[in-house]
């Protein structure tokens, strides 16, 4: 272990101060007498950058279409449906916000990105409905806690067209989680 202290104006070694172009030569010369070889330890841990799973789906349940375009919303804060416009009627079935579980190293920064909109398509048909205004619980930029686990919820707004054809409508949306 050398007993040199590097400073911005030069290199100080013992009682000598060498500056300018001779700094490296002077440091090597004066420090060579005080150099020691000591073993050092090193280690590293390889961690998975993260794992994201979709624990529950975004489900609007059963709805009777109205005579005007209706907007139904599931907030990211509860498993409930709200009619925000129009005269469509929710009539039961399973209503749930989507839940995503994240596992990563503690104190990892995560940035969550939601889609702007998607189309739901009627199974065995071509009729569609727009799902937009996706929202998540919490902030889009979060820090993993000490447990290395984080869950967040996603809701959105469904536009039910007037006299929408009966049937099951399905679609997929992508949530992107970046680990920083």
TrEMBL record:
UniProt keywords, alphabetically: Signal
Signal peptide annotation: 1-37
Alphabetical list of Pfam families matching this protein: DUF4402
Organism superkingdom: Bacteria
InterPro entries: DUF4402
Protein name: DUF4402 domain-containing protein
Source organism (scientific name): Sphingorhabdus contaminans
């Amino acid at each position: 272990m050398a007993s040199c202290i590097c400073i911005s104006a030069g290199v100080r070694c013992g009682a000598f101060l060498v500056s300018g172009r001779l700094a490296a030569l002077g440091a090597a010369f004066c420090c060579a007498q005080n150099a020691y070889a000591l073993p050092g330890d090193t280690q590293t841990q390889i961690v998975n950058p993260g794992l994201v799973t979709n624990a529950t789906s975004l489900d609007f349940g059963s709805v009777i279409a109205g005579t005007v375009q209706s907007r139904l919303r599931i907030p990211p804060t509860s498993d409930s449906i709200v009619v925000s416009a129009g005269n469509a009627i929710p009539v039961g079935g399973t209503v749930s916000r989507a839940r995503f579980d994240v596992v990563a190293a503690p104190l990892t920064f995560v940035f969550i990105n939601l889609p702007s909109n998607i189309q739901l398509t009627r199974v065995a048909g071509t009729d569609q409905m727009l799902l937009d205004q996706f929202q998540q619980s919490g902030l889009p930029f979060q820090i993993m806690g000490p447990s290395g686990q984080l869950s967040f919820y996603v809701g959105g707004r469904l536009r039910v067209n007037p006299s929408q054809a009966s049937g099951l409508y399905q679609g997929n949306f992508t949530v992107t989680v970046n680990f920083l």
